[in-house]
Amino acid sequence: MSKGIKLFDGLSDEQIKTILNSIPSRKYKKNHILIFEEDPIDQVYIIKSGALKIYRAYEDKEIILDFVRKHEVIGEVELFSKSPALSSVEVTEDAEIHHLSQADFIALIYKNKIILENIFRIHHQRFETLNKQIRNLTFYSVHTRVCRVLLDFIENNEKPNDLTIKNINQSTIASMIGVTRESVSKAFKDLQDEHILSLQPKTITVLDMDKLQAYANFD
């Protein structure tokens, strides 16, 4: 668990183990809503296992902002700004999550100043991701947006060289890139016809990574 937690970069394995052993965790089933938009936030969540979806509701539609997985942290932005939750968070794969109270989180930062540096670094990365999403929505075709989202999922796989995307359907991708499911379905058909993708129930497999990357950078 200690490897890969960006919040704890620069700390020794022993330090991280001690910290995590002191933080309680809870298990959640798929579809559990961990956070509702506009709810008060009084703790930080560190994902031990599983996956969660971050989304906002707009005009009876669900806009997916991101997926977070093992080792990632949520809630620290609202905790520092003392603002309510900026978005809702739903468990998409059975998860175990550490809960760190505001008081304990502040105490942890005072004891390990490098954590504050890591928070700034994490926020910068999120800002870059947001800018990337805005560019995708503004400048690129549906076909290119689909390819870029698929590449993001592949790059975020836990195992290197894992070319499969599990438990992500076309409706989810449509919500992420701001188009209809039918538009995504057409893009998927084109990618299948060119033997770039293979579709099975609950699994997308990339067959030709070079072509997918070329299409992602086409526009």
Q: What this model shows, in words?
A:
Keywords: DNA-binding, Transcription, Transcription regulation. GO terms for molecular function: DNA binding; DNA-binding transcription factor activity. One of its GO terms (cellular component) is cytosol. It comes from Carnobacterium alterfunditum. This is Transcriptional regulator, Crp/Fnr family. It is a single chain. This protein is an alpha+beta fold. It has two domains: 131 residues, Jelly Rolls (Sandwich); 76 residues, Orthogonal Bundle (Arc Repressor Mutant, subunit A). 43% of the residues lie in helices and 27% in strands. The chain has eight helices and nine strands. The strands form two sheets. Strands 1, 2, 3, 4, 5 and 6 form a six-stranded antiparallel sheet that branches. Strands 7-9-8 form a three-stranded antiparallel sheet. β3 and β4 form a beta hairpin. α5 packs across α8 and α6 packs across α7. It is globular, with a radius of gyration of 18 Å. The relative contact order is 0.13. The mean pLDDT is 88.
Give the helix/strand class: alpha+beta
Number of domains: 2
User: Helix segment count?
Assistant: 8
| Number of strand elements | 9
**What is CATH's topology name of the largest domain?**
Jelly Rolls
CATH superfamily of the largest domain: Jelly Rolls
Rounded to an integer in angstroms, the radius of gyration calculated over CA atoms is 18 Å
CATH architecture verdict of the largest domain: Sandwich
**Global mean pLDDT:** 88
CATH class of the largest domain: Mainly Beta
**Proportion in helices:** 40-55%
InterPro entries: cNMP-bd_dom (IPR000595), cNMP-bd_dom_sf (IPR018490), Env_Response_Regulators (IPR050397), HTH_CRP (IPR012318), RmlC-like_jellyroll (IPR014710), WH-like_DNA-bd_sf (IPR036388), WH_DNA-bd_sf (IPR036390)
Protein name: Transcriptional regulator, Crp/Fnr family
Domain Cyclic nucleotide-binding: 7-126
Pfam families: cNMP_binding (PF00027), HTH_Crp_2 (PF13545)
